[in-house]
Amino acid sequence: MEPSEWFSNASTSTAAVDECAIESNDRRWYFALVGTGCSIVSILTNMIIARVLLSRRHSHFFFLGLLALSDCFLSINYGPVIAMDIIKDRLQILWLTRLYQLYVGPLLGLCSVSMAFSSYLIILATIERFLITQRSSWLGAFRRHRGLSAFGMFLLALLMRGPIIFESELKRNGECTGLTEYYIDLHSIVHTFLYGTVYRFYIRNIMTVFVPFGTLALLNYCIVRTLRMQQRSAEMFRFLSSDHKASFDFQRFQSKIRSATRLMVLVVCSYLLANVINVLVTLWEYVAFQSTQDGVAYLIYEICTDVTSVLYVFVCATRIFVYYALNKEIRDAMMECACGFPRLPRKSDYIVVTRSFDSSRHIGTEIDAVAIAIARRLMSNELLATSKSNGQLDDDRVDSPLQAIVIANRNAGEPPRML
Q1: Domain locations in the chain?
Q2: pLDDT tens sequence across 361-385
Q3: H-helix or E-strand containing 245?
Q4: Which terminus of the chain, N or C, has fewer Cβ atoms within 10 Å?
């Protein structure tokens, strides 16, 4: 749903009965209570997440840290923007109504920018996780420009949602006085073709609703598919390895990556679930907007918009429990932040891999390097045993699958031999 449409919807619901009457809906009152409770929890939990993930030690969760800040800002403004609209109609206090009418336009625009920025940050975090699972050579460059990428996405969110601040104006409501003397309506610029139809209806909705939803759904599918393939590869490596300690180290290294990947997958799934109603409502507006303003259809339309706003804040509030349950590194960091002192490291927290080869000659990513280093250590025992029995080492002899892996990596950086 277009955020500025909320102004005209609010005025339409009251005007349907009487231009000067104030309608107080118990259903919306309950939505406001639930949403406000979720927003309070979200503020506290996202402050903790931002405090933990934006530290230098956890810089690889940079985008999720910024996401926590954006969610915290959005949760702070849920009460003044969404809940206060319902509270003022229920309390019917004149100064509270006037104050709300003055600040709601700019604040709603800032909230819309924050929502778009959050969706773009989830896209960036998912792209980074996708590059990790694909073991892409672009991962290093992407990580070096994290700050620039986040700033670019913020500018895009500001461009797409920022003008909402100027799309509303305060108008006099005929002969009404008191609480209904003024009402908030859409600015005349909204009814122009270039701005209202091309930019506001098509470009903005496509770039902030359909593109993020479709992109995240596609990336999520690719990540899950790659994760399953890598899990089968890890099982094959464990089957080929005769050194149980090295195999265990490699499994824990891969398990850490899979844990972070599953965390990102669930974050994306929660975003998709929270926004699926918004996507359907936006499609409804595309097909037949006038039908959303009449009779029973308007009631359904209003309920969908209320549910969407509560769902979004609910996802923000419960994100900390997802982080805590699925990622051990974040869980330990949160415990350290809560307790005020660092947790003593255990021996099993470390993975020591000795790399006895020239790093400039190896190919692949860091994960491949760890696998090759472990394979070299395993193969050294086999070569030592062969040298004792034969008195020499044959460089071209392949006695095991591990030797084949290492020799292939070693020869990848060498020029072809002349026959």
Answers
A1: 5-339, 353-412
A2: 444 555 555 556 555 655 555 555 5
A3: helix 244-288
A4: C
